[in-house]
Write a structure and sequence with these properties.
This protein has 269 residues and is α+β, with helices and mostly antiparallel strands. Helices cover 15% and strands 36% of the residues. It has one domain. The strands form three sheets. It has an eleven-stranded antiparallel sheet, with helices on both faces.
Length: 269
Amino acid sequence: MRKTNLKKFIPLTAAAIAILSLTLAAAVIAPQFRNDIIVNSVDDIPDPASTNAPGMIGIASPSGNPPPTLEEITESGRFKSDGWLSKETINGFGTWDDMEVLDNDAPIRSRRVSRTDGAVKMEYTAENPIDLAETLTGCVSFDLSWMDGHYDYVPDANFSYVITDPEGNYAGEVFYALYAKRDKSGYIRVELDYTAEKEPLSPSYIVDGSYETAYYYTTPEGYEFLIQLHKGHVWVKCSTNYTGVGLYGAHLTRDEVEDILDNLSLSIQ
């Protein structure tokens, strides 16, 4: 699909802004992407004082540390599942106070995590993450059947949440699932977070060349992802004001990452 290496800034006149606004209003199915912005040099990053950003402008750069091993990330991914009966594992997407295990034996295990203000987080985990799709609300949908046929899911290294606020209103959801390459030479984690309220995001910039590979990739459904590869690390993210859908992994090629994105059948409401 379409690839672009740099996103350039072009000042907009009032007339151009008006035309753009009309275009966006007509294209209601297209989300407004908030991915990090690739620039040619630090000089191309605007002065924070000249922007209307809600916070500080960030500059993203990779660390020199190698990616975690498959064993290390499996241990991290199984943190919820291995501690399913323990209150020590209930935090995540905020701080929580209590929990009740609803099912610990079914293919999809579930528990109700609560906070004293009345907020509730329904948590789920399963041996195979493809079973967790039914626990999500449909605000973001995707298909893991292609992943299931080309990678090995890591048993129980997954979880999903659906959160309601103290008034019982939908607040958001989270999904994580870990897969390994068949020869165990690499891995990829599918990540989703969705919030019901618009989250203003401060702009973050990437100076071209700071990563070994950094570029934008558009899926068949029209979703723009930022793909970054560096010293074995793989970061992939599609960000909007409400949603973050991405991958984190190690030792995958560009082609392998793009194949995954092309076969997720992603849909964001």
